[in-house]
């Protein structure tokens, strides 16, 4: 059988596949995709579906965060289960009654403390559309956020773990905790080559009813995408500008720069990359 000629017509752009995970230059068999390409596509599609339906385990993540010396609160959206969450995005944007009570009581307890200071940042970790992304990348990214807060003397509210949550849920969390700014780490909608992509959204002066106009986003945080240090570099710039200018969203442009090496050998030089 190995002596039989291949029926796959190779694509002349084959070499470009080394530069991108995109499905290009797959070749063809007649007018169809080769079997290997078709099977790879079906596998990627199955991985994306599994990521959407994978259950989030906030209890396990809470233990890991508490081991880092941080306080944790667990909340839930108004979507009671995964099916309802996927069918009713609006329910994923608001907290259920028990969660509102829990966050309100925490804030009231803080107000009774003589040295009470409102937290600068509230961090929410939410399953979103990929609990897989949260499982893999939320804790390493949280470590970067901790380091940023320490270096700038920003205070943190308890880390909030949110189940069946959409991005806008963080605004309600931040408002109830009295935070000046809220960050949410959330699983992004899986792609056919990225079932574990983590997104980060920040909002200044969070409150219920804000739209994406008021938020800044750093997306594609994963090993094959934007690295944790790179994401932290961009986040550091955005946070610094947000606290200085007291705003976020469309009025806050991501103008962070990164030093890079350009050229080869003796011609290498330091350049600047604008995100």
Characterize the structure shown.
This protein is α/β, with parallel strands linked by helices. It has 7 helices and 8 strands; from the N terminus they run ααβααβαβαβββαββ. The strands form 2 sheets. The protein has a 6-stranded mixed β-sheet, with helices on both faces. A two-stranded antiparallel sheet has the order 7-8. Helix 5 links the parallel strand 2 (121-126) and strand 3. Mean pLDDT is 88; it is low at 261-275.
Give a short account of the largest sheet. 6 strands, mixed
Average pLDDT score? 88
In DSSP terms (H or I, runs of 4 or more residues), the helix count works out at: 7
Q: Please give the number of β-strands.
A: 8
Structural class: alpha/beta
Cross-sheet strand order for the largest sheet: 1-3-2-4-5-6
Distance between the termini: 52 Å
Radius of gyration, Cα only, in angstroms? 22 Å
The residue fraction in helices comes out at 25-40%
The ordered H/E elements are: HHEHHEHEHEEEHEE
* Unreliable runs: 261-275
In total, the number of domains comes to 2
Percentage beta strand:
15-25%
Shape: elongated
- Overall CATH class of the largest domain: Alpha Beta
CATH architecture of the largest domain: 3-Layer(aba) Sandwich
């Amino acid at each position: 059988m190995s002596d039989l000629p291949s029926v796959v017509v190779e694509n002349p752009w084959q070499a470009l596949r080394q530069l991108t995970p995109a499905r290009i230059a797959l070749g063809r068999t007649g007018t169809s995709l080769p079997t290997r390409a078709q099977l790879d596509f079906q596998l990627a599609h199955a991985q994306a579906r599994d990521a959407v339906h994978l259950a989030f385990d906030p209890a396990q993540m809470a233990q890991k965060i508490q081991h880092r010396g941080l306080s944790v609160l667990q909340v839930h959206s108004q979507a009671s289960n995964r099916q309802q969450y996927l069918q009713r995005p609006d329910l994923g944007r608001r907290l259920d009654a028990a969660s509102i009570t829990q966050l309100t009581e925490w804030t009231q307890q803080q107000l009774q403390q003589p040295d009470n200071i409102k937290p600068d940042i509230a961090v929410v970790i939410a399953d979103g559309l990929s609990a897989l992304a949260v499982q893999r990348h939320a804790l390493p990214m949280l470590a970067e956020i901790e380091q940023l807060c320490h270096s700038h003397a920003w205070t943190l509210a308890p880390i909030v773990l949110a189940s069946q949550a959409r991005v806008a849920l963080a605004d309600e969390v931040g408002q109830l905790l009295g935070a000046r700014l809220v960050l949410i780490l959330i699983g992004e909608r899986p792609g056919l080559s990225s079932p574990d992509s983590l997104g980060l959204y920040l909002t200044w002066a969070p409150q219920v009813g804000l739209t994406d106009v008021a938020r800044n986003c750093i997306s594609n945080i994963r090993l094959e995408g934007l690295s944790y240090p790179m994401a932290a570099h961009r986040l550091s710039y955005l946070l610094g500008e947000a606290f200085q200018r007291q705003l976020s969203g469309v009025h806050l442009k991501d103008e962070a720069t990164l030093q890079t090496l350009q050229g080869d050998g003796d011609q290498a030089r330091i350049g600047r990359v604008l995100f």
